[in-house]
Amino acid sequence: MSGLHDFAERGGLGAVMNALGAQARAAAAAVREASAETRTAALRAIAVRLREAAPAILAANADDVRDGRAAGLSEAFVDRLALDAKRVEAIAAAVEETGEIPDPVGAVMASWTRPNGLRFSRVRTPIGVIGVIFESRPNVAADAGALALRAGNAVILRGGSDSTRSVREIGRALQLGLKDAGLPVEAIQIVPTADRDAVGHMLAGLAGAIDVIVPRGGKSLVARVQDEARVPVFAHLEGLCHVYVHAGADPAKAVAIALNGKMRRVSVCGATETLLIDRAVAKTLLPPIADALRAAGCELRGDEEARSITPMTPATEEDWRTEYLAPILSIRVVGGIDDAIAHIARYGTSHTEAIVTEDAAAADAFTNRVDSAIVLVNASTQFADGGEFGFGGEIGIATGRLHARGPVGAEQLTTFKYVVRGEGQIRP
Amino acid sequence: MSGLHDFAERGGLGAVMNALGAQARAAAAAVREASAETRTAALRAIAVRLREAAPAILAANADDVRDGRAAGLSEAFVDRLALDAKRVEAIAAAVEETGEIPDPVGAVMASWTRPNGLRFSRVRTPIGVIGVIFESRPNVAADAGALALRAGNAVILRGGSDSTRSVREIGRALQLGLKDAGLPVEAIQIVPTADRDAVGHMLAGLAGAIDVIVPRGGKSLVARVQDEARVPVFAHLEGLCHVYVHAGADPAKAVAIALNGKMRRVSVCGATETLLIDRAVAKTLLPPIADALRAAGCELRGDEEARSITPMTPATEEDWRTEYLAPILSIRVVGGIDDAIAHIARYGTSHTEAIVTEDAAAADAFTNRVDSAIVLVNASTQFADGGEFGFGGEIGIATGRLHARGPVGAEQLTTFKYVVRGEGQIRP
After folding, report:
1. The domain containing residue B112 runs over which residues?
2. Prediction ipTM score
3. pTM across the whole model
């Protein structure tokens, strides 16, 4: 690995990065052609190697944390960065669980026969090479690496500068596990340099080696990736999620869903940021909802009508556009489902929206017309998560419109090809 | 429409193009929320209006052809540009057939229930706004417009400068049909200016209004689009398709498939460009294949071994990389399936490859390991076509890896969302 640091000799950072890409591309073919059992064995072996490496990982992490504190990182930042024995065990366990996800490669998605006798199948195949650019949390290296491998891909991982040593140790364990199973170690590569320009090279696609980029981190990272990437990206910039309490809502469900949606965890992308409530039920339903939220420590900001029902800070236009990622909820009283849908279309980020109603027609109208990745009826927006969907894990949530939308699990890290079987047919 | 030409007043080309985009985005919501019956009615009405407009379309086309000839266009180019009564009828008939494709919007792609009782569905929804940039053939305006509409999208069409008047008349008929069915006319818009910079604006995405771009035309157009587009693209740059005659090939099938693959139509992307043949059968099978191709007027270029079996011009490295789009076939003798797969991986464009063999294990190995959009066993590469797949039509063929791969029909012009139904579940 040390030779890769010899930039001057080897033609600079671009050459080093493109070499990573070429190695990944070559390894991707081997991973794709390996059996499902081999990929599963590799994931199990990786979990074993991670547990073995726990002392080394923790020692490296202690260095990262010490240096991070010295550099003035906030405690919140350090908490995202820090590992302990329990967290390392959780990382290994997560890789093990990923090994239990059914292998998606080779699955027949659809099949049909044409009048001329040709038999068509659409068959799952890995996307190829995934590029993951992440910040802070060292576990992403293992989580994302494992999920990419489960779907038959090779992966190039680039972590934040604050967790370089932690990620390097995790990367060693990942590669030992690959080797144990007879897969090329270049199937999972950690970018070996802290040079900030390495990210720019990845965004350019490493001379055609990267098929898709997944950013995991704060808004400025995601925005940079979406802006500069010359290859497809699976990402969401913001999760400005709504709960719409319709006139036909069950009162208890409305309270529970609003409270859980906002307060279960305020900093996840599936946290509810705005509550919309039908005028017809606002006087009766808003007070108990507001009481429950206030009791849980949530600050409420409302339009004039909401404020006339129960006291709260005034909400501005800016509030409708704000993903707080904090215990703050904006509240608007609306004149019915058309208003609610229009508000969501105008201010939402196509992430996750929920309607609370017992009225089947209203539920159908909402789910048909709301154009977000996830639309729920009578359930919390906090279910926006690959594990909750039954995917066994996710590499992130996407709000783009193509290929992957919503939680990106192993299946979404595949593409497909057509296999056509004939008996000698030629086309007239 | 004339006001849109007033660039100086309206803030320039960028403002005009972004306005087109905003109109398309607004119309897309209406098209998406309309019923399948309404979209079908619109397609039928468009076919009626196209037939009505035949005299006007032909008159406009005559002007385009006259000016094209005067400008020195080749006869081949003029032939792509020219319409007659039969071709106009074919355009209308194709739109009618598109109306008979089952509407994909709202189809449930998958559904499942979680232990907590939440019921999940993955539901088809239109992509949104499609941008089509095409050259020469005026029919693309109607074909692509109709297919986009069938899948619930709005579409912005930009044709070549040589067919401006033909495309404008076709566009009028498309919009009249939309109006007849009660859909907004901005669901299908023709870019109203011949300004070459309009394409650049589309490639930038029209301020977020375009979700995907489909280029239809020559290699330099496709390359420009793939290079410059800041939004996803469904395209193929080249179709360098292979036929591999395996040692277990049926001789008659090998001849028929090689001949049809090359010579049915030499300028389509699914035309065979290179023949690979196992050494074990080259002496017996290559002569009849070569004879059939030569009799059909095909020039053969082969490696040393091929030439030692039957006379032909020498093939160079360049020939393996060349999509001839002409009656020329390069031929290479290989040492078995691994060699064939390696050659395809090295020189192919991930478009379409065929193996001719009666050996089931070889067929399976080929279809598993070859990483192209379409892989056939015992059938001609010329089947690389949406109609032949049963899609009812295609907007193009894609060789990228994400979202759409192979023929892009109505279903591929959709994306999906998740609908999650509960009874008040909150997440622990």
Report:
1. 2-234+408-420
2. 0.92
3. 0.92
